[in-house]
């Protein structure tokens, strides 16, 4: 009980100076109790249905992403761009993403594997684990026992065949076909399509008609036969490279029988092709169009088309135009296109800047791993990233990336389970990704175990 003098003093002080604030004693509590008072805040996630990627760095909550679940509501398009310098985790993300997607019965994946070592592609281990034989395109063995894909396969429409032939020639020549060369090609293709009915037409037939056009074809357009032959000479020389040059054997015969287009994973191994040669964009154009007409079907399957070294597509105006059509067409039939690129400057400053911009616009999901400061600023400007995201991109450590899902920007730590680790980390990947934060290693392993348990528990209930 307070003494009378203190009560009198407080009353006088209040009368003269106004009410006096009381001093509260400090409160001792635990973080578990305080969290009810000081509520944490975090950006909203993308829902709880789909594929587990890892955890959001700032909040620690799980990060789940699936373009098929988000398409139409949170995503205007299911296509995805992955950017970043080597050694930061792009390869590990792609592989675990595909492995986790394949847990759903209505998923199917095609991979264009342009990297490799020891004579096999980077996806060889995963293909072996799933009991799948990669489709290895190799001009050194194609004439003997290799795989062939026929640009004139009857499963491809006549219009599609002609468009593909034009693209092959334009990529090889480095410029568009003029009207006369285009007319010569059209005449040769029309003649072969009409007269080769007892077997699959092949590129050799086109080359032969370009060298020796029929008089009837020229007369139909009131053109001299010698002119038609002259107009088609350069075209014949370009196609001859696929028939009798350094790319022979892969495309100059009927499509190999037995390619399983119903397998859950289809891997095209392009690792034996020089990545810096003109052959790579030609290969990607042929494979892309062939898949468009043979693989994509209205059967309610959700398909993923993942392309390594995708700058070979985006940086060529002629190949990019083919893939633009594929992306627009695929959206209606459940196709998610995943393009993996090291530097955005590889494509936005190239010859196909207009086509590149159109493809980038279709990619509503962008994942950016560590880049140098100048590259990060350029990436942020082109993709419209917020300033805070641009500033942290150069500081990101391996396995952590900025995710922009149609404007929902978060920083995500990718986690890998112990079962996935030996499949994801090839010898090269182990070398590139050897930098690990020791303080996060134990936590990462524990969270990976939790993710694996969650995947085992949710996959039964969420499989379509």
UniProtKB/TrEMBL annotation:
Top-level taxon: Bacteria
Q: Which residues cross the membrane?
A: none
InterPro entries xref list: P-loop_NTPase, T4SS_component
Question: What Pfam family is a match, any one?
Answer: AAA_10
Q: What is this protein called?
A: ATP/GTP-binding protein
């Amino acid at each position: 009980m307070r003494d009378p003098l203190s009560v009198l003093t407080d009353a006088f002080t209040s009368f003269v100076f106004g009410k006096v604030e009381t001093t509260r004693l400090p409160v001792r509590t635990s973080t578990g109790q305080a969290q009810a008072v000081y509520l944490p805040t975090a950006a909203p996630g993308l829902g709880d249905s789909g594929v587990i990627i890892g955890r959001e760095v700032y909040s620690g909550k799980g990060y789940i992403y699936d373009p098929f679940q988000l398409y139409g509501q949170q995503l205007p398009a299911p296509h995805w761009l992955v950017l970043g310098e080597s050694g930061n985790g792009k390869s590990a993300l792609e592989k675990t993403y595909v492995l986790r997607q394949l847990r759903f019965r209505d998923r199917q994946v095609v991979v264009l594997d342009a990297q490799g070592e020891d004579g096999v592609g980077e996806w060889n281990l995963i293909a072996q684990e799933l009991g799948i034989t990669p489709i290895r395109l190799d001009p050194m063995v194609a004439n003997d026992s290799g795989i062939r894909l026929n640009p004139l396969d009857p499963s491809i429409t006549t219009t599609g065949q002609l468009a593909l032939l034009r693209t092959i020639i334009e990529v090889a020549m480095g410029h568009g076909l003029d009207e006369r060369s285009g007319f010569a090609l059209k005449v040769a293709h029309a003649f072969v399509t009409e007269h080769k009915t007892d077997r699959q037409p092949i590129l050799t037939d086109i080359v032969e008609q370009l060298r020796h056009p029929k008089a009837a074809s020229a007369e139909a357009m009131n053109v001299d036969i010698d002119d038609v032959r002259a107009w088609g000479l350069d075209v014949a020389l370009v196609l001859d490279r696929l028939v009798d040059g350094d790319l022979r054997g892969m495309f100059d015969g009927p499509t190999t029988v037995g390619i399983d287009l119903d397998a859950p994973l289809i891997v095209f191994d392009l690792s034996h092709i020089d990545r810096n040669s003109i052959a790579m964009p030609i290969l990607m154009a042929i494979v892309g169009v062939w898949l468009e007409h043979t693989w994509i079907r209205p059967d309610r399957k959700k398909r993923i088309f993942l392309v390594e070294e995708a700058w070979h597509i985006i940086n060529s105006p002629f190949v990019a135009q083919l893939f633009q059509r594929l992306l627009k067409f695929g959206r209606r039939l459940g196709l998610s296109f995943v393009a993996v690129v090291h530097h955005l400057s590889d494509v936005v400053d190239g010859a196909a800047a207009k086509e590149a911009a159109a493809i980038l616009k279709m990619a509503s999901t962008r994942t950016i791993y560590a880049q140098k400061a100048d590259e990060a600023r350029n990436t942020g400007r082109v993709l419209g990233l917020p300033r805070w995201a641009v500033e942290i991109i150069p500081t990101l450590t391996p396995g952590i990336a900025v995710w922009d899902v149609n404007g929902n920007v978060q920083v995500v730590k990718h986690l890998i389970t112990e079962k996935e680790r030996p499949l994801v980390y090839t010898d090269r990947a182990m070398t590139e990704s050897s930098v690990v934060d020791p303080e996060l290693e134990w936590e990462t392993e524990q969270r990976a175990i939790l993710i694996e348990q969650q995947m085992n528990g949710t996959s039964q209930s969420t499989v379509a």
